[in-house]
Amino acid sequence: PGWSARTPMAIVPGLSCEHAHAPDVMRGEETQIFGVMQIAGVRDGCFVLPGTHSKWAWVHDGRIQRFTTLMTGEVFAALSQHTILARTVDPHAALDAEAFLQGVDLAHTGQGLLHHAFGARTLALFQRMSAGALASYLSGLCIGEELRTMLTPSQKLVMLIGSPALTQRYALALRHRGVQSHVFGAESTWAGLHALSKMLPAPHP
Amino acid sequence: PGWSARTPMAIVPGLSCEHAHAPDVMRGEETQIFGVMQIAGVRDGCFVLPGTHSKWAWVHDGRIQRFTTLMTGEVFAALSQHTILARTVDPHAALDAEAFLQGVDLAHTGQGLLHHAFGARTLALFQRMSAGALASYLSGLCIGEELRTMLTPSQKLVMLIGSPALTQRYALALRHRGVQSHVFGAESTWAGLHALSKMLPAPHP
């Protein structure tokens, strides 16, 4: 609300950080995070941006302190399109919440995606799950593995930023794991571009 | 040794078993396992058959009691050929043992392949690892994840069956994790086909 041709905006070049084993990078998600800080009036929290490369960022006092990338969306796409699972999984099927949460629960056991993904093959072979449900099951395995490795017991609320189709799945999985989420969409980008213009020094005339 | 046109052989149709969450299947690996039992004179143990779909089978008193499939080889291929990693990982590079074991160690932390695989992207972006070393690193992450989820502290020895290129990597990773392996190759198939002919009832004339 209130956007016009005169609304000032600014862009930033992205962020990198160092994990013990490898660096990490984001480009664009920081703008969405700044936008949600502005929209929601928060300066602290855990921000989750699901996608091809999901980002989890921890913000303290208005600054992004650290973040982690997970290849969740791209691994789901690669598994469902470029492995034996492509024969039986329909990656474009609508969400089957029951099969999805079955995958989330299974991922939580920590036995690993390498084994559990093969279940999406055998459940089809034995005709125990339909192609549509299998896609949700595999999606639940992938997103559940992300939650297993990223959630800590003290995390009770996350800011979830992304497309409706993805944030719906993440919100469902998070709630299933006892975590609340506040959901934001494309508005985070516009608010972020505007917020940045107020944070950055004025440009040279 | 001792094979001739008159050596009797037999084939079997494969095995299935039930996990709590999904069934599992193998087709061919059981023959190789029977072959190694015959060659090595063992009737108990853990048999590991790395590949597109790796199999871990536990044998007791000459019978396969249970087994588990992991999509390790296929996930490595999909990651290195059908994700952003394809830009920087050379999947056909020779083994770089140091980078490989770095990946194995990282997988052992249990933080998950979804995150660590992205390191193969950022290490390239920051020019900290070559395309050849990155392939070994990613391979170590995948095989290391398999070992993390499958090895138990009491497992000190496995029978490793497969192609030299794969068994070399698995033997290296297993030794790194304190597990000995006895390695078998194509001879396991022939010995298995022969062993089966002695186990099965004689055919009708």
Oligomer: homodimer
Give the spatial strand order of the biggest sheet of chain A.
5-4-3-6-7
Helix/strand structural class of chain A: alpha/beta
Using DSSP, what is the number of strands of chain A?
Answer: 7
Overall pLDDT score of chain A: 94
Estimate the strand proportion of chain A: 15-25%
Question: Strand count, sense and closure of the main sheet of chain A?
Answer: 5 strands, mixed
Residue runs with pLDDT of under 50 for 5 or more positions of chain A: none
Distance between the termini of chain A: 28 Å
Q: Enumerate how many helices of chain A there are, as a single number.
A: 7
Q: What is the general shape of chain A? A: elongated
Radius of gyration of chain A: 19 Å
Give the largest chain-chain interface (CB within 8 Å): A-B, 45 and 45 residues
Helix proportion of chain A? 40-55%
Please describe the topology of this protein:
The structure is a homodimer of 205-residue chains.
Chain A: E1 15-18, E2 23-26, H1 29-40, E3 45-49, E4 54-60, E5 63-70, H2 72-82, H3 97-108, H4 113-125, H5 131-150, E6 157-161, H6 164-176, E7 180-184, H7 187-199
Parallel strand pairs in A: 3-6, 6-7
Antiparallel strand pairs in A: 1-2, 3-4, 4-5
Descriptive overview:
The structure is a homodimer of 205-residue chains. Chain A is an alpha/beta fold and 205 residues long. Chain A is built from 7 helices and 7 strands. Chain A has helices at 29-40, 72-82, 97-108, 113-125, 131-150, 164-176, 187-199, and strands at residues 15-18, 23-26, 45-49, 54-60, 63-70, 157-161, 180-184. In chain A, the strands form 2 sheets. Chain A has a 5-stranded mixed sheet, with helices on both faces. In chain A, helix 3 crosses helix 6 and helix 5 (131-150) packs across helix 6 (164-176). The longest helix of chain A is centred in the C-terminal third of the chain and has 20 residues, at 131-150. The A-B interface holds A 16, 19, 21-25, 53-54, 68-72, 74-75, 77-79, 81-84, 102, 106, 110-119, 122-123, 125-126, 128, 142, 145-146, 148-149 and B 16, 19, 21-25, 53-54, 68-72, 74-75, 77-79, 81-84, 102, 106, 110-119, 122-123, 125-126, 128, 142, 145-146, 148-149.
